[in-house]
């Protein structure tokens, strides 16, 4: 009987840790504590595929009707595309959303923008909240740029580059709005700064949002 109680107690501890770990990962809120980092690493090993976590353009079967206006143009190239405009439009939409909810807006941060551009580039290799070399996404804030933080969050998005900058910004932002985890990150009251990065490769637009609460 004593062994049974011990086993039951261990199972409850594991389930509690899993719940807390997934909550922290889904909300992308990583506080600088040994407990938080350990729990994050444990939950990362059990995370679902990236396609269930990030907004992607749904596949369309050829026999299904589609809007002709959307597919009437050839795939655009980065040569005639203003990626910085997409970045600024998305950040503006984030702040419009926060203002509509009575929340403090986030300031544009050039260091976070640089990190977001790096992460957008990396997602062309591995579209995941894990970097191509297997490390967690926020190592970019310590290794490639210098940003000391108390909390950070990341949203990723991708779409075929078929329409103009305004259309693509709207489409990606709506995808984040429709995903509870990504929405929660955009309206998280801990964050005071943000950077948005965009990258194009082989006709695909990749966008990363990185939010931060600096140490000072």
Description:
The protein is of the alpha+beta class and 216 residues long. 45% of the residues lie in helices and 16% in strands. It has helices at residues 2-27, 34-44, 68-71, 83-100, 110-123, 140-143, 165-177, 180-186, and strands at residues 107-108, 149-160, 193-201, 204-214. A four-stranded mixed β-sheet has the order 1-3-4-2. Helix 4 packs across helix 7 (165-177). Residues 45-69 are annotated as: Disordered.
Strand order of the largest sheet: 1-3-4-2
The topology string of helices and strands comes to: HHHHEHHEHHEE
Q: Find the structural class using helix and strand composition.
A: alpha+beta
Number of helices: 8
The total beta strand count reads: 4
β-strand percent reads 15-25%
Overall pLDDT: 75
Fraction of residues in H or I helices: 40-55%
The main β sheet shows up as: 4 strands, mixed
Q: Kindly, what is the distance between the CA atoms of the first and last residues, rounded to a whole number of angstroms?
A: 53 Å
Characteristic key phrases:
transmembrane; globular; 16% strand; 216 residues; CAP_sf; membrane; alpha+beta; 4 strands; CAP_dom; 8 helices; transmembrane helix; single chain
Entry summary:
The chain has helices at residues 2-27, 34-44, 68-71, 83-100, 110-123, 140-143, 165-177, 180-186, and strands spanning 107-108, 149-160, 193-201, 204-214. With 216 residues, it is of the alpha+beta class.
Write the layout of secondary structure elements.
Elements: H1 2-27, H2 34-44, H3 68-71, H4 83-100, E1 107-108, H5 110-123, H6 140-143, E2 149-160, H7 165-177, H8 180-186, E3 193-201, E4 204-214
Parallel strand pairs: 1-3
Antiparallel strand pairs: 2-4, 3-4
Helix pairs in contact: 1-2, 4-7
Organism: Atopococcus tabaci
Domain SCP: 91-207
Biased composition (Acidic residues): 56-66
